[in-house]
Design brief:
24 helices; alpha/beta; disordered N terminus; 5-stranded mixed sheet; 4-stranded mixed sheet
């Protein structure tokens, strides 16, 4: 077929589109129709967060208004519907290529041109020159050249070209998105969830993504619509539900059998505790809390690991901004980590060392990616890299100690403090006293800590340690958006230590004794280490209590290591758990929240004497302080939603591990 005939046919397609549109419809109405169609089709795709802040998300998020049985058939099992074929794989490979180029985060030597204009327009300007795409076919080149400048119009043209009927359009687009759920989910995150600070970021929408995908399909898989047949997954869904129901019933009965006797035990008021520790509700905190409570008169609480503070944190060492709050919330305040008061020469040495290490890293990256220097780089550094790799493989502990020693000598550790940032135009300039009082009261009431304060109250965030693991952030605090929760803990501790805040809390009925001191801490869930931040509450009032607490935290580590080691099916030799966290061949140093099975909202008294095996989210709560149920409603509509996302993500990872 000649080019002229092809584009005569293409012009006829466009005319058909215009004829099918009702006369009163404006261009804006047509755009709105396409946007609505894509929005409905994208319900089957869950957002996917970037690797640096990866969190678990419910794969059935778009179907949460439906019964679980129906959602399971419509959502998860869609990925099984089409058998792999050469044309589909070709479309996928081209889509991955364009997505990788557009979303590149500075790793490529040459950036994709026209990214600032958006995904669709960048593709529109460059696709004509992609010989792998059009294979020098004149008709295909002309098709690319004459594509419209709006993604919505391109979608209409492609649907007609692929012969997709109007009543099948939504189903076809849903299936199209499900072929690459990772990239589609990432674009959905960029569209619906990303809290962007900069207006210069490369814009992209699901409309752009669908338009590019359909154009590739028209060129490489013109018969795609013919395979768009619905498959009945009734038997598969029924089988999954049967096994799931059986397992849930068995676990629920076992758990209730353990909890009921504890309800009958009277609550005996004991002496004042030396220390109270507030951990994240994360299931990995439960074994550590149990081990610590067995070592002394300690009382532990459970609360969401961001400690109720929706903040964006500017880290001192990396100078990166991180949103340290649940993704269900938007950060309201900017917080900055700054160096604490220290010797001037020490600070200068730190800056000099940091500058030197950063320069070496940048130079190495440039030499490795430059066209002319990689071979020379291999010749000059090959021996050193080989020795380093051998040492890291044979003795991860020795390698880690050597690297840490060299880095500490060049760039000594710098103590920091947390302050409110004052130059963020899109966020509030720090927390006012009224806001600090509001957050402090809300957090204390939600966790049921309104009286009986110990001398030490430790707010313990959590994070992880791992090497060579692209999903490292998935092991960090989900309530902090896939980041460490230490800074949030330090920030709330500093607020609760302020005399003016305590005076304000007195007016709300919460009396904090003058001799009570709050500290931040960090629980490393990979190694089961607990570290106290004692530099920010000066002077130290209880050095003996703090020293004893740190000793007990150190003793709780091997106890928890031993319990976790049995689940990891490994020898519980001391040091094995720590070795996993620094071994670059170990991509699964811990199992994260893989075994989570229940969410318990109750005082610690109910679960303290039960070994819950690290399978329960534990949120502290006292119904006596919540006669109207408003606090319980907050817990069930925020922390429990996050726990539900985590639970479903891990569930469907077992059903279809490749996609989830």
């Amino acid at each position: 077929m000649t080019t002229a005939k092809v584009w005569s046919k293409q012009d006829n397609v466009i005319k058909k589109i215009k004829k099918t549109q009702k006369a009163p419809h404006s261009e804006k109405t047509q755009i709105l129709e396409i946007q609505t169609l894509v929005h409905q089709a994208a319900q089957c795709i869950a957002p996917v967060w970037p690797l640096e802040t990866f969190i678990a998300c419910n794969p059935l998020q778009g179907f949460e208004t439906q019964p679980f049985e129906e959602a399971l058939a419509q959502g998860v099992f869609r990925v099984h519907e089409v058998e792999p074929n050469r044309q589909l794989e070709e479309v996928n490979l081209h889509m991955i290529k364009w997505c990788s180029g557009f979303f590149d985060a500075g790793f490529s030597s040459i950036s994709l041109p026209h990214r600032e204009q958006g995904f669709y327009l960048a593709f529109l300007k460059l696709a004509y020159f992609d010989r792998q795409l059009h294979r020098n076919n004149k008709a295909d080149k002309e098709f690319l050249r004459r594509l419209p400048e709006t993604a919505e119009e391109a979608i209409k043209i492609c649907l007609l070209k692929l012969k997709v009927s109007q009543d099948q359009a939504e189903q076809f687009l849903s299936k199209t998105l499900s072929y690459l759920p990772g990239w589609a989910g990432f674009v959905k995150w960029k569209t619906d969830w990303h809290n962007s600070k900069s207006r210069e970021e490369n814009p992209v929408t699901l409309i752009d993504f669908i338009a590019v995908r359909l154009i590739l399909t028209c060129l490489l898989w013109p018969d795609a619509a013919k395979s768009n047949k619905r498959i009945n997954h009734g038997n598969a869904v029924a089988d999954v539900l049967r096994r799931l129901k059986k397992n849930e019933d068995a676990y629920r009965e076992q758990l209730i059998h353990l909890l009921l006797p504890e309800l009958k035990k009277p609550i005996v008021a004991g002496a004042r505790r030396a220390a109270q520790l507030v951990f994240c509700i994360d299931v990995r905190s439960e074994p550590f809390r149990r081990a610590l409570e067995s070592l002394g008169q300690y009382e532990t609480f459970g609360f969401a690991g961001f400690f109720g503070l929706p903040v964006r944190i500017n880290e001192f060492d990396t100078n990166k901004n991180k949103e340290s709050c649940p993704v269900l919330l938007k950060p309201k305040y900017a917080v900055k980590e700054t160096p604490a008061a220290a010797n001037k020469d020490y600070f200068v040495r730190y800056q000099r060392g940091k500058s030197f290490l950063d320069s070496c890293k940048n130079l190495y990256t440039q030499l490795k990616r430059n066209i002319s220097t990689p071979f020379a780089l291999v010749e000059s550094l090959g021996l050193w890299c080989g020795l380093t790799m051998t040492l890291k493989s044979l003795s991860p502990e020795l390698s880690h100690r050597l690297i840490t020693a060299v880095q500490s000598w060049l760039k000594p550790p710098m103590p920091t403090r947390v302050v409110y940032e004052l130059d963020e135009p899109d966020l509030k300039e720090g927390l006012s006293l009224k806001e600090q009082l509001s957050y402090a009261e809300t957090v204390l009431r939600l966790m049921g800590l309104t009286s009986g304060f110990a001398k030490l109250v430790i707010l313990c965030g959590h994070g992880s340690t791992t090497q060579n693991n692209p999903y490292a952030s998935a092991l960090d605090c989900g309530a902090c958006g896939g980041n460490h929760g230490g800074i949030n803990a330090r920030l709330l501790a500093s607020i609760l230590n302020k005399p003016e805040v305590r005076r304000g809390l007195e007016n709300t009925g919460i009396h904090i004794p003058l001799d009570t001191v709050f500290y931040g801490a960090l629980h490393n869930t990979t190694t089961d280490e607990g570290a106290l931040y004692t530099d920010e509450a000066m002077p130290i009032i209880y050095p003996e209590l703090l020293a004893q607490l740190q000793k007990d935290l150190d003793k709780a580590k091997p106890l928890t290591n031993e319990e976790r080691g049995r689940k990891l099916c490994m020898n519980t030799v001391p040091g094995n758990i720590t070795r996993r966290s620094i071994d670059w061949s170990e991509t699964r140093p811990e199992w994260g929240l893989a075994r989570n099975a229940a969410f318990i909202v109750a005082p610690r008294q109910l679960t303290k004497n039960i070994a819950l095996d690290g399978r329960c989210f534990l949120h502290s709560y006292r119904y006596e302080d919540d006669p109207e149920g408003t606090l319980l409603e907050t817990i069930l509509t925020a922390p429990m939603v996050v726990a539900e996302w985590i639970n479903t993500q891990y569930l469907f990872s077992t059903l279809y591990n490749v996609a989830f």
